[in-house]
Design a protein that fits this description.
mainly alpha, Urease accessory protein UreF
């Protein structure tokens, strides 16, 4: 009997121990499942947050790309503005037949004398001509001719044209600016005539290149500032073209010179726009002497 009781007690204790173990195992499994679930939720939440952050970051870029632009941005240029730009680019293109390629503005003699011998010396020479010589003066004449023609002030236009013609320092430079001015007027009038152009030409009398560009641009209602910048770019480009052929320079060096003169063109245009006729003056005596001495230079490729 005692033995039977002991056996029952042993079985009972074993059963209780098994139950405890099963509870522990169940608890461990439950905790593991909870941990996995929590980790998954955290991961999903983190990914969701990251997705939200990425979406928030990308959304403005997508909106910038795809959003509807304001009406003023989508409008673009008007027909008149597009026509004015087309004419300005044509008139001051190297291909416009005013004969600019035939003239060097004295650069040929400067190369002969050794003043210009590489890209750096060409750049320095042209910067001086632009800011302190014929570039600035021609810019002032263009600006005043544009304003006079725009106001249909024939008397003022004539005075400006006569002063511009008298301001040229040498016979060859006179030939250069007057021949290009006449060619510019005649070709522009033949291809793009406009009401009032003939009257302004008649009132002008003497025609030189900067006055011709200012006059025609004003009659065609091309704003003064872009016309002046385009003009200065055109004369600088022609000077560089002459220097490239004479030194000689390669195309890359020529473009580097042109790029380096960009701030000089901008500052010269700004000064010319604000200048009065009393502000006219030149301090590029060496360039003026070059245009004078070119007249008797033995071997010449250019007309000035």
């Amino acid at each position: 009997m005692p033995l039977l009781m002991r056996m029952r007690r042993t079985v009972a204790r074993t059963h209780m121990r098994d139950m405890t173990i099963r509870r522990k195992i169940t608890a461990i499994i439950t905790l593991t499942i909870m941990a996995i679930t929590i980790t998954t939720v955290i991961t999903i939440t983190t990914m969701s947050t990251a997705t939200t952050i990425i979406t928030t970051a990308i959304a403005p870029m997508l909106m910038t790309t795809n959003e509807t632009l304001p009406v003023e941005d989508r409008r673009g240029m008007s027909e008149d503005e597009a026509a004015a730009l087309y004419r300005l680019m044509t008139w001051l293109s190297p291909s416009f037949p005013v004969g600019a390629f035939s003239y060097s503005s004295g650069i040929e003699w400067a190369v002969e004398a050794g003043d210009i011998h590489d890209a750096a010396s060409l750049r320095d020479w042209l910067a001086a001509m632009l800011a302190d010589g014929p570039g600035f003066c021609d810019g002032v004449f263009l600006a005043h001719a544009h304003r006079a023609a725009g106001n249909r002030d024939g008397a003022s236009l004539r005075e400006i044209a006569e002063l511009a013609a008298a301001f040229v320092p040498s016979r060859e430079r006179q030939l250069e600016t007057s021949s290009q001015g006449r060619a510019f007027i005649e070709i522009a009038r033949s291809a793009w005539n406009s009401d009032g152009l003939d009257d302004m030409i008649l009132a002008c009398g003497t025609i030189v290149y900067p006055v011709a560009v200012g006059l025609v641009s004003a009659v065609h209602r091309i704003p003064l500032e872009p016309a002046l910048h385009a003009f200065l770019h055109a004369i600088i480009s022609n000077w560089i073209s002459a220097g490239a052929r004479l030194v000689p320079l390669g195309q890359t060096d020529s473009q580097r010179v042109l790029a380096s003169l960009e701030p000089d063109v901008v500052s010269t245009a700004k000064r010319a726009l604000a200048a009065s006729l009393d502000d006219l003056g030149s301090t590029t005596f060496r360039a003026d002497l070059a245009s004078l001495r070119h007249e008797t230079q033995y071997t010449r490729l250019f007309r000035s």
